[in-house]
## 1
Amino acid sequence: MKKRKVQKTYQEINEKIRQRKVVVVTAEEMIDIVERHGEVEAARKVDIVTTGTFGPMCSSGAFLNFGHTSPRLKAMKVWLNDVPAYGGIAAVDCYIGATEVVEGDPLNSVHPGEFNYGGGHVIEDLVAGNSIRLRAEGYGTDCYPARRSERNITLRDLRDAILFNPRNAYQNYSCAVNQSDKAIYTYMGVIRPRMANANYSTSGQLSPLFNDPYYMTIGIGTRIFLGGAQGFVAWPGTQHNPRVTRGENGVPKSGAGTLAAIGNLKNMSPEWLVGASMLGYGVSLYVGLGIPIPILNEEIARYTAVKDEDIYTQIYDYGKDYPHGGELKSLGEVSYKALRSGKIVVNNKEIPTAPLSSYYKARQIAEILKNWIEKGEFILGEPQELLPSDGLPQTR
Amino acid sequence: MSTVTKKIVIRYSADIVEQPITCQLVKKYDLDFNILKARIFPRREGVMVLELSGTKENFEAGMRFLKEKGLKVEPLSKSVTMNVEKCIHCGACIAFCSTDALSIDPQTMKVIFDPEKCNGCEVCVTGCPVRAMAVDLSV
């Protein structure tokens, strides 16, 4: 292990938070600090760098416990505002998934379908305090004789409501173009034919996992900003894949790490959990997520100073290649600086770009998190186990 | 002489929908027009979105003519709205807005809507993931 000039512990930084002496900056502000003072001096000055992302994260949902009726019911099938929720867990529990479409939706029978309501919208309605029609059916047992229950509920009425998102905060994501001759409607938005636009979806230099590319600080138990409240990293996310091609700065050049996030839905806000309708594709949920990165040493300081111009992703054809499946052929590599400039060049053609994730809201999340920590309202959670790096350089 | 180019919405009632009115804007007032959208509803009322160009005087006289004929005329910008409470400033709309009426401010990274550039195509209405855009071309 390299000898480091700066070494801090979680305990030391948390003590500084308690004493209101902690120095917190956002990932955007850190770029300038490291450029001006160098990574060692930056690591001495700064204790925490805050990050943020606000994008459509399909792999999201909530566990709800809606309490017993009289007579009792073992809810086997559950609907919330006519959106099916998974009822195959205990008697009065269900899981409402973000991408579940409302029953009776015409889907894509008239293409492109509008998908105006679904699980993501139910979650937004719940955190907004709106009344939700709960409908449940069971088959009747000696202990749970009722067959059916229908009532209005609000988030306050629920005994428990836990947001549990199996895959959030993707570390990098593809840039989508369409080489076919017709417009396509995808989870990456509307992509016009003959490469008339290119869509992308990360907050780049503000994105949590770009600022800790080897997961040196992020793992199970890391306290995070989730949906406007404090939540936690619960586990590596599904499809977490650290072993991808990386730049010299350690940043993956294609989709890599992910995390599973958990938090109390009752404390969250509709400003940071917003139902999404993706034309011709389906429903989803915009999730606001931010992670504080403790600057334990100068190496971590250097990683948190990563800039859009040093973060690359691959351009893929969603018109033919992607739907076909199998190995995808990259049409080229592009930096987030270029993507955010509004234009990129692919095969000598200039293409306008559009994001799906909100940089504006990501910036707000990083600021809010910074504010919480400065006020002593948010203490770092030391991970019990880091996200797997599978032999990549990882230090504690 | 200064020329103006403006996009307007004209709403026809059923009794005049079959009269040749728009062509009078050319004949009498020397205005160029470009029909961006025209609809007739089941009860025979109609809505038309026009881009009109001509001298300021002619444009104003043309507008007076339309109003005297009993048509409701208003700038297109009044029929297209962005719900700033709903907009999450993701920028997905930039991909399909063909007139650059929707754009991202590179400093604030907020989505800006310029109603003057909008041609009322309505693609943003269902294209916006959070349904923050509304175009009201009803009668």
## 2
Amino acid sequence: MLKRDYRDIIGGSLLIVIGFGTTWQAWLEYPLGTVSRMGPGMFPAGVGALLMGMGLLVIVPALFRVGPALPKPDFRALFFVLLSLAVFALTVDTFGLIPATALLTVTAVLADNKLGVIGTVVLAVGLAAIAILIFRVGLGILLEPFKWPL
Amino acid sequence: MTAYLNGLIDNLGLGLSTALSPTNLYYCFIGVVLGKFVGVLPGIGALVTLSLLLPITFYLHHTPAIVMLAGVYYGATYGGSVASILLNLPGTPTTAITCLEGYPMSRQGRAGVALLMTTVASFFGASVGIMLMTLFSPLIVEFSLSFGPAEYFAMMLLGLVAAASVASEAPAKGMAMVLLGILLGLVGLDVETGRARYTFGIMELYDRVPLVAVAIGLFGVAEVIYSIRTSRPGSIDRKSIIFRSMVPTRDDIRRSLFPLLRGTGIGSFFGALPGTGAVIAAFMAYAVEKKIAKDPSRFGKGAIEGIVAPEAANNSADQAAFIPTMTLGIPGNAVMALMIGALMIHGIVPGPQLMVKEPELFWGVLMSFWVGNVMLLFLSIPLIGLWIRILMIPYSLLYPTILLFVAIGTFSVNNSTVDVFIVMVLGGAGYIMRLLDFQPAHLLLGFVLGPLMEENFRRTMLLAHGDFLVFFRQPISGALMVLTISMVLYALWSSLRPMRLRRKKAV
């Protein structure tokens, strides 16, 4: 337990930053118009201001109550999960669906590292088969199984 | 009255013939099997699955698309109780309460009875929910056809405020998520002036952030990151679940009768209200049974009332939630927001016009609920052994599969790498929200309704020459606004209350 609810204090501060940025941007860049003929900036400026208000409402009570321990982010899972998607996106157009699927599987498995090498290979083969069957055969989405960028 | 009944019979006929067409039957079957499957698996729920299926609906006609998505939704509620009863782990949040009595029952070797009774209760609750939707939808639509932009804005505002504040422990955080969703929905070209807003020079964002990317990022990717380290142990006594062990005793049936009816009533009511839904309905139904029981000490030790009532409640709530969604275009929860989004992808404007302009869609989907529930009844009981085996699939195999569907699904919509990167950003953001205890589900509601709200707000202001009080001049929007304001005031009061209490204690 912590003396203050720091989790909500952090959350509320983020809200205020986002709300402020939104309103600032709308105020400076987009015409506000008049209330009866609103420009593109009026609505976002209002919503941003409300968001700042909510941020305050989250922070103020949190200052006066005890809070839970701060959550520990799982950086390993975060990193490998996002990386696996990036790897897929960067390879699917140049090398095709099957290599991209295999790379995604290998990267994703590293996030919890519970499957051994053999398990990973079996999973990659299985997923490649599923990908081809469901998306290419079943739904007719045009994704080449293999490509060579030359 | 007779005209209403005749119209109803015609429409039900139309709906039934639509629902029973081979295509719709097929997608209904796919939907409920998939729903049951992911419902059984702890860690994957209806929301994740619906997000992953959203790209696929691009390749379907609108009716089978909605039929399938709906099937996943109510199928998952059927499946969720299997994990709750056998593993003491809720397969879906709506069946969390079922653990309390369901798991003790399975410890006593009565898992079979529990599984059978929850299935029967689910079917009964869902049936009543569907009937209510059939009877009331035409009346609601007739009433709301004359709504102008002011009424729409007021209604959407009420829906969002209710969703964010009524059910939530921290209303300010809920509202903040809704607002964040509205802002995310504003990214792109402004409909009226063509001005690009918050696009940061990225061309792909001019046409708004795709709903698919938001749903998949927040629910697919963020959930995977969050769940990887959550270990789920458990062992099941498979022998206790043979077919014969499912037969309930005379005492079980006698005890279940009234809880069934009460649970259904509670579920139908809370399901139709925006912001409450199946989770709350199930909790309420359990609390009511415990309160009125002659011998409350039986609860917690495998009282059959404690699984029948919540299961009837969550399924009737699932069906009743379609009432505001399909008649008014106001989604009460994130799943319903995805349904609305799927309709909009197919160029259908949600709202009272839907039933008038697309009767085949409306009544076809409605009748498919019956078909799907009957399918689930037959899938659940005879195939119980199969579902139990699915329960044992380890998460380390599941999550790479989910990620593959995330990647292909997102990529295939526009053949765009940028969409996958948007999903990554939103996935990371969703993970941060989960860590800081913000609900991404509220964000999705705001995201779907945001652009519609802005449009109606601007139109109202244009018609009223900038007079804010216009919302209070007409009786319907006035009543809605008063309701909204009282909810906001209550939320304000309750979010500041803990602070005052603590101050008192400190003194």
